[in-house]
Amino acid sequence: DAAGGPQDLLLPFNTVFEQGNFAFEADYYIPAQSTGLYFNFQTTTTVTEGWTLNSYITFDQANTNVRLTGPGDETLLEVVDPFAPNSWFNLRIEADLTLNQWELFIDNVSQGTFANVDANGATYTQIASIDFYPVEGNMAYIDNVLIEVPNTLDASLTEITTPTSLAIPVNEYI
To answer: pTM for the complete prediction?
Structure first.
């Protein structure tokens, strides 16, 4: 905003993924003087209409913390001291959206698995975009963002002639 406040950075997919395997990965750097950042997976292509998963990456000057919550802010998985401030770390979330099985990795080490289910038993597996923003008054750096999405190619092979090459996008890099 004009006062220099937090800014949302939105990565839209222009479609809603609800089935298949989905993965999000990025490298993060949180300076020691900062308290963290936040990102969420949005459920629809209309921004702020709904959230599938919230991720709080925080530093309270004593401990680092990664807490994943569902749309009702219920904690699905929480990890204390999974990374050191003032150093780059990699965070990856893999999800089988069809089976609602999710897993968090930090620096390629599994931190745990969970199902995205709220207190009423509703499941959340829709992903249409990712919204990033820093905790107010703080800095955070994000690099090497990788999104792996289900192959949405709906085609059948009817004939092969040589030479043949067909690029099928599987991973999207930003």
So the answer is: 0.81
